[in-house]
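Quick start: read one record
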Amino acid sequence: MFHQLDVADPSSAACLADFIKHKFGKLDILINNAGILGVTYQFDDDSDLDKQLEGKNANVTMEWWVQQTFFSGDELKEELNDVDKLSEERLDELAELFVDDFKNGELESRGWPAKGNGFVAYKASKVLLHAYTRVLARKHVPSLRVNCVHPGYVKTEMTRGTGDLTVEEGAAGPVTVALSPPGGATGVFFFRTEPASFV
């Protein structure tokens, strides 16, 4: 069953929530999938993405993903790892700080992913989402379980078809975590089906 949702429009989100409530009574599982980069690139044979993806396959390690994705600044890492002090308001402030630092050319000095490493906004958004996962998990224990899942290196348009996992294999992680028994993990980052460190 299909229902349109514009995640940037609060009235659209309210409409979907109302639909679910009246049609099903409640929502059991929600998988929020970030399936696009939100930018358009014109690639050539010597693009940064080609270099990053060259030789990568289903054996891409969590360590490689962390090196590609996360921050270099110890202070920022420590703050994002301290779930007891994190709040939704602070994450909003950090997102705004990222935009300001991006505009002012101060990414590296603050510990954000370096602009020259490619897809810097995408990387920052992922790290902030991982932190938000832990904030939501803490806030909603025990009524909800909230987790992040990295599906692995999946063959999609986003990876320009270079992944070694099929879409079905990539879906295994999110589905496994979503269908885990009551009382299972919450506030955890999974690499495919295995718990992994956030930063």
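The beta strands are 148-150, 189-191, 194-196.
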